[in-house]
Design a protein that fits this description.
Elements (H helix, E strand, L loop, with lengths): L2 H7 L2 H14 L1 H11 L2 E3 L4 E3 L2 H9 L4 E2 L4 H4 L10 H13 L5 H19 L2 E3 H4 L3 H10 L7 H17 L9 H31 L7 H11 L6 H31 L2 H13 L6 H10 L6 E5 L3 E3 L7 E3 L4 E4 L1 H4 L34 H16 L5 E2 L4 E3 L2 E4 L1 E3 L3
Helix pairs in contact: 2-3, 7-9, 7-17, 9-10, 9-13, 10-11, 10-13, 11-12, 11-13, 13-15, 13-17, 15-17
């Protein structure tokens, strides 16, 4: 039976679980059939869009497709809002205080820290447990000012926020949704106390003219200036957002890059050569192409606000009604030949302008210029290891890698 025949033959309550399983177990052939035969799939729980054109439309039209489902998890944080004054002002402030001119220094730091951890590991390591979370936390501590605390706590707080916001939605199959919510709330109490203490300390230093030049201190100076509406509550929210956005997503991306390239013997040799001999930036194409095939987020979810036609101008045109949860299946979109020529070919030299790995539209990754060199550099250092191989599968804990053991020749 075709995928669609199986979906249509299933009962209404069984269709979304079946589709979800196909997206996890047989994504590429499933997506190919859906783009060809039913690019807009309406189910009782939600509607899925599989073509690149429709995913672009959904993510760019923030007035028509909003992030309503973020709000219960993220409260007043600006990324849980669409076209609001808070969204535009807070995002602009956060971009202005991040040290984008220090990206080469950040990349060097990430590479050195990764190499140090690998050197101490002695030929075997579990990536998420000992490396792919530890390195982004170290960067957050050094460059963003979230220091003076145990890295393990920062990792835990980031983990539960990511779990609840992106993998514990009403349409998800999380094993214990209430427990995830409770863990996120507990984590946020501890996170708020930690950042609150940092804010008090940095505020006192600023008042006596001995302030530091980290991100939190810059946010406080903006808040104290009264030049814009950016109170202390926003300093707390946005400081926590830097941590939450940096750790788990980077870990997931790196694990996927490693797994995808290790599964491709024809690509692996060239990836190793470039990682070992080329300039650091030369590996970025391998990282982005691996994530096109195996993204950390296979879709982005939105809530329809306005009746909107998807697959317009085709025989599959369908209207999405307000209050419908819509999944822009960007994993499928990145395999759409309408946007990527020869999409089944792993091509590290291809243009990645339409790659959805870091999002699109007003909700794309805030730290996009930092994120790509960070996950690419971590992966590059791993592929410099001689005889690198996976010694076990990527084990997911509610959709994110919790274990992925690899080894190499010492």
């Amino acid at each position: 039976m075709s995928y669609l025949a199986r979906i249509d033959a299933a009962g209404p309550a069984e269709r979304w679980p079946l589709v979800r399983q196909l997206m996890r177990s047989e994504p590429l052939p499933f997506y190919e059939e859906m783009r060809r035969d039913r690019p807009v799939l309406a189910l009782p729980e939600l509607t899925l869009a599989f073509r690149a054109a429709d995913c672009l439309l959904i993510l760019r039209r923030h007035d028509d497709f909003g992030v309503d489902l973020y709000q219960p998890k993220q409260g007043d944080y600006f990324m849980a809002q669409d076209d609001t004054a808070d969204h535009w002002r807070d995002k602009s402030i956060m971009k202005s205080v991040l040290d984008f001119e220090r990206i080469p220094e950040m990349r060097t730091f990430v590479g050195e820290r990764t190499a140090e951890i690998l050197n101490d590991a002695g030929g075997t390591i579990d990536l998420p447990k000992s490396l792919t979370r530890a390195v982004p936390v170290a960067l957050v501590q050094k460059f963003f000012g979230l220091d003076e605390h145990r890295a393990s706590d920062l990792i835990e707080w980031s983990y539960w926020n990511q779990q609840d916001a992106f993998h514990n939605q009403p349409f998800d199959d999380a094993p214990d949704p209430d427990a995830i919510v409770a863990a996120r709330k507990k984590a946020n109490i501890r996170l708020a106390l930690y950042i609150g203490r940092l804010v008090l300390e940095r505020s006192a230093l600023i008042k006596i003219g001995a302030g530091r030049n980290d991100v939190i201190s810059r946010l406080l100076k903006i808040s104290f200036s009264d030049g814009v509406q950016f109170g202390l509550k926003k300093v707390l929210f946005n400081s926590g957002g830097l941590l939450i956005g940096a750790v788990e997503t980077t870990s997931h991306a790196v694990c996927n890059i490693i797994a995808e390239i290790l599964a491709r013997p024809d690509v692996l040799a060239e990836a190793r050569r470039v990682a070992t001999n080329g300039p650091a930036e030369a590996f970025d194409g391998f990282a982005m192409e691996a994530l096109r095939f195996r993204p950390a987020f296979p879709y982005f979810f939105r809530t329809c606000h306005k009746p909107t036609e998807l697959a317009g101008g085709t025989s599959f045109a369908a209207e999405v009604r307000p209050d419908t949860t819509v999944l822009a299946v960007t994993h499928s979109a990145m395999m759409d030949p309408a946007s990527f020529s020869n999409p089944a070919t792993f091509d590290p030299d291809r243009s990645q302008g339409d790659n959805f790995t870091l999002g699109l539209g007003i909700h794309e990754c805030l730290g996009r210029p930092i994120a790509k060199p960070m996950f690419s550099e971590i992966a590059r250092q791993i592929f410099r290891l001689p005889g690198l191989k996976a010694t076990g599968p990527v084990v997911l804990g509610n959709q994110v890698p919790d274990s992925y053991p690899v080894s190499w020749t010492v």
